[in-house]
C-alpha cells in the first residue's frame, strides 16, 4: 500500500490507523504547491488533489480520510480501530468521524485558507470554532477516549485535527480535558511512530 500525505496535515490519522492494523505501507510525500510527488503528477493519483489518498495493493485508490479509516478498520478488524460495521456503536463512531471531518476539519481549513483575511478568520474562530472545542472538551471530561475506554480511529483523527489550532493562532490551552487527551494520545506508540515518520519526511 501507499499512503499519500503531507507532513503536519490530515493524513496522520490514516497513518496511525495503518500502523495499528500492522500493515506495510510506503509514505509518499505530496508537495501541495506543485501537486507533485517523487512519482510525478499527483492529479494522476487523485484528480481531487487532496491528501490523504491510499493506494491499495491492487492499484485501486481510496480518498476521503474518514472513509479510508473505515476501510482499514473493516478490512483489518483485528486492529479493533472501529466498532464492527452494523452495530450501534459503529454509528456513534461514524457520527464522530463525520463531525470531525465536517465541522472541525473543514472549520480549521478556513483558518488555513489564503483567500480569507485575518479579521474574518478571527471572527470565524470566535463565533464558530470555540463552541466546537467546548463541546469536545466537555465530552472528553469524563472519558479517556472519544468512544469510551479504548483507543480508536476517531481518537487518531481528533488528535490529528486538534494539533492545528496553535498553528493558526487559536489558543486551546484552557481546555483541560482536550489537553489531557492530546498528551495521552501523543504517547501511544503508533502515534509517536507516525509523528516521527512525518517529521523525518518533512526534513
Ligand atoms: N475531503 C477531504 C479533504 C482533505 C483535505 O482537506 N486535505 C488537505 C490537507 S488537510 C489537502 O490536501 N490540501 C491540499 C491543498 O489545499 O492544496 C478529506 O476529508 O479527506
- Succession of helices and strands: EHEEEEEHHHHHH
Ends distance: 23 Å
Shape category: globular
The CATH class of the largest domain, by name, is Mainly Alpha
- How much of the sequence is in beta strands? 5-15%
**At the third CATH level, what is the topology name of the largest domain?**
Glutathione S-transferase Yfyf (Class Pi), Chain A, domain 2
Q: Which ligands does the model contain, each kind named once? A: glutathione
Q: How many β strands by DSSP?
A: 6
CATH architecture of the largest domain: Up-down Bundle
Question: SS-based structural class?
Answer: alpha+beta
Distinct helical segment count: 7
**How many domain modules?**
2
Radius of gyration, CA atoms, in whole angstroms: 17 Å
Which blocks of ≥5 consecutive residues have pLDDT under 50? none
Biggest sheet architecture? 4 strands, mixed
Ordered list of secondary-structure elements with their pairings:
Layout: E1 2-5, H1 12-20, E2 26-29, E3 36-37, E4 40-41, E5 53-55, E6 61-63, H2 65-75, H3 88-112, H4 118-140, H5 153-162, H6 176-186, H7 189-202
Bound molecules: glutathione.
Overview of this protein structure:
The protein folds into two domains: 92 residues, Glutaredoxin (3-Layer(aba) Sandwich); 100 residues, Glutathione S-transferase Yfyf (Class Pi), Chain A, domain 2 (Up-down Bundle), CATH 1.20.1050.10. It has a four-stranded mixed sheet with strand order 2-1-5-6, covered by helices on one side. Strands 3-4 form a two-stranded antiparallel ribbon. The chain is globular. With 203 residues, the protein is α+β, with helices and mostly antiparallel strands. It has seven helices and six strands. α1 packs antiparallel against α5. The mean pLDDT is 97. Bound molecules: glutathione. Glutathione binds next to α2 and α3. Glutathione (GSH) binds next to α2 and α3.
Amino acid at each position: 500500500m501507499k499512503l499519500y500525505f503531507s507532513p503536519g496535515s490530515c493524513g496522520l490519522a490514516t497513518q496511525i490507523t495503518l500502523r495499528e492494523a500492522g500493515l506495510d505501507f510506503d509514505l509518499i510525500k505530496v508537495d501541495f504547491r506543485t501537486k507533485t510527488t517523487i512519482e510525478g503528477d499527483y492529479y494522476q493519483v487523485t484528480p481531487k488533489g487532496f491528501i490523504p489518498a491510499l493506494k491499495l495493493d491492487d492499484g485501486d485508490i481510496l480518498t476521503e480520510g474518514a472513509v479510508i479509516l473505515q476501510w482499514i478498520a473493516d478490512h483489518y478488524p483485528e486492529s479493533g480501530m472501529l466498532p464492527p460495521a452494523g452495530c450501534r456503536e459503529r454509528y456513534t463512531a461514524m457520527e464522530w468521524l463525520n463531525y470531525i471531518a465536517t465541522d472541525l476539519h473543514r472549520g480549521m481549513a478556513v483558518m488555513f485558507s489564503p483567500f480569507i483575511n485575518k479579521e474574518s478568520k478571527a471572527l470565524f474562530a470566535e463565533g464558530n470554532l470555540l463552541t466546537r472545542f467546548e463541546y469536545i472538551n466537555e465530552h472528553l471530561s469524563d472519558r479517556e477516549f472519544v468512544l469510551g475506554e479504548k483507543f480508536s480511529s476517531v481518537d487518531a483523527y481528533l488528535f490529528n485535527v486538534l494539533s492545528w489550532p496553535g498553528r493558526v493562532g487559536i489558543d486551546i490551552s484552557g481546555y483541560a480535558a482536550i489537553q489531557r487527551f492530546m498528551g495521552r494520545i501523543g504517547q501511544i506508540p503508533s502515534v509517536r511512530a507516525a509523528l516521527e515518520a512525518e517529521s523525518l519526511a518533512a526534513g
